[in-house]
Amino acid sequence: MTTEETTTVRARPEPIKAVPVRHPGRWIAVAVLAVLAAMFVHVLVTNDNLQWSFMVDHMFRPPVIEGLLRGTVLMTICAMLLGVSLGIVVAIMRLSTNPILRVVAWLYTWVFRSVPRLVLLAVFGNLGILWSRIEFGVPFDTHIGQLFGIDNLQLRVFGFSSRDVLTGFVAGLLGLALSEAAYMAEIVRAGIQSVDEGQAEAASALGMSRAQILRRIVLPQAMRVIIPPTGNETIAMLKDTSLLLAVPYSIELFFQLDAVGKRTFQIFPMYVAAVLWYLFLTSILLTGQYFLERHFGKGNGRTERARIRLRSIAGEAGGGGGREGGEQ
Which Gene3D superfamilies does the entry link to (predicted)? Predict the structure, then answer.
């Protein structure tokens, strides 16, 4: 009896013929964008109404540089410092267990987020209409004197003229900073609430006070969430300084460039100069925001999470090997 041995030989698979996916829409979009870019460059180069030589000659004049430094840069820094500081306080009030503080903080954010900044600047610029003098002392002193039959009772310690205090810079600073504080309060509140409550409970169990927990545990972790919108708010504040003409405050970048354009009847070149200045300043802020986000985002990126996961896997493998060795 003979047995036939049958061997099955697996056939070699044919090479895969990979056909790249066609993306005609991409090429059409690139072509359209290239045409638009060429048209834009053509306008910049060939249109004589831009007056490039006139623009460059006037956009670096001393009044413009003074408006850039004092009205735009300095106002942005002061308004953001005051707005961020006050916003943190209002955010803590919103998260407080005290219902009065919560209501006051909610009313503050409601009012200053509802009124446009242009309107706020106009209001603060005309506060002198309400009070010609600002005085400190016992409130309602004249009314109290009338109740007791004393005419012209003055229980005021000191005072000063509102015009001496509510200058254009101060009025603009108050309008921008108070408005910014309302937005920063919501940003900080969202950042604080993004931190796991278990960490605050663990810190409280260790005997830390609420202020220490907020300063050492919560805020450092919340900065990862707070920094990106704060950077956007800083850029928006930089651009909103152009609204200071509603105060009015004349030592400001856009006001000075607009004044040059109207005085020389070359308005559009000066508007383009303003665009270039704001692009330059915003680019600096964007660079700083990038490095701040990278600093506070350490340990939260995909690479870092993958590294932590690999370390945990290696630790588990090492621990398992140790246990097996011990059992043997």
Answer: MetI-like (1.10.3720.10)
